[in-house]
Amino acid sequence: xxxxxxxxxxxxxxxxxxxxxxxxxxxxxxxxxxxxxxxxxxxxxxxxxxxxxxxxxxxxxxxxxxxxxxxxxxxxxxxxxxxxxxxxxxxxxxxxxxxxxxxxxxxxxxxxxxxxxxxxxxxxxxxxxxxxxxxxxxxxxxxxxxxxxxxxxxxxxxxxxxxxxxxxxxxxxxxxxxxxxxxxxxxxxxxxxxxxxxxxxxxxxxxxxxxxxxxxxxxxxxxxxxxxxxxxxxxxxxxxxxxxxxxxxxxxxxxxxxxxxxxxxxxxxxxxxxxxxxxxxxxxxxxxxxxxxxxxxxxxxxxxxxxxxxxxxxxxxxxxxxxxxxxxxxxxxxxxxxxxxxxxxxxxxxxxxxxxxxxxxxxxxxxxxx
Length: 370
Hints:
The protein contains 15 helices and seven strands.
């Protein structure tokens, strides 16, 4: 049975296809960017009994197309175009060259693949990102309210405690009342009324977008495991689970940490080896939540605190570096927990050998590996 390797170069209006088959001349076709036409084309390629292997580049619609076209081919691979450039360099670029490049790399097994999670997980990720946007907008509105009040002599809220507790919110609303008859010098009250209304609207949206993730997280076994770590809450747990998807695809702890952009950049040549800042590749929302959780874990877990303080070494300027290193250790512990199904064990984390490069974090949750 022959194998056909097909590369799709997809844009908004048309799709260029190239078929690479051993012993045959390359075949090109131009299709409309329409799933029906794509399916018909793939079915035609299978009519002679050939195995059909398809690849196309990652995009905002890649997940949808992956689900739709997957049943019509033997294998489907979504490629990373940025990494592909280093593998297959050419001074020329057009649609035919791009689709052939993908087909050729697919035929020799050198396509840099992108993991496409199931539809439910993709929607989970979208919800997490939306929640982050809402949180950032709420923080921005609160900062503008504080600045507006201070700019008009109200440096402190009337009631002690948080500025955003019910009593102080009501006090702010009183400052914004009767603004329809204010003088020009008091137009800031109009602005305050608008900001308070925006804050209320965003708060309602945040509540709505949090209900679904909470219920979905409760249905995931990994959610209970990750929240057994003192200081790790539901938001961090759901982000780790959603962007991990299948923990088995990460063979090493270093690979898992690199997925979240927590490994340092490497510049090595000859006898020179330099480690730079972390790569910051992968989902930034996970790093943001993970670092925030790490500060809380340091306060609540003596073993993690000891690791953090060992990195700090009594030097205050190393605190940021130490918390990132601690976040990396924490994420490798999470990987081991998801693999073994063991909850967090403070005693085993403390006893884990510091110089075990192959997996001290695995030992921290599974004593049988010692």
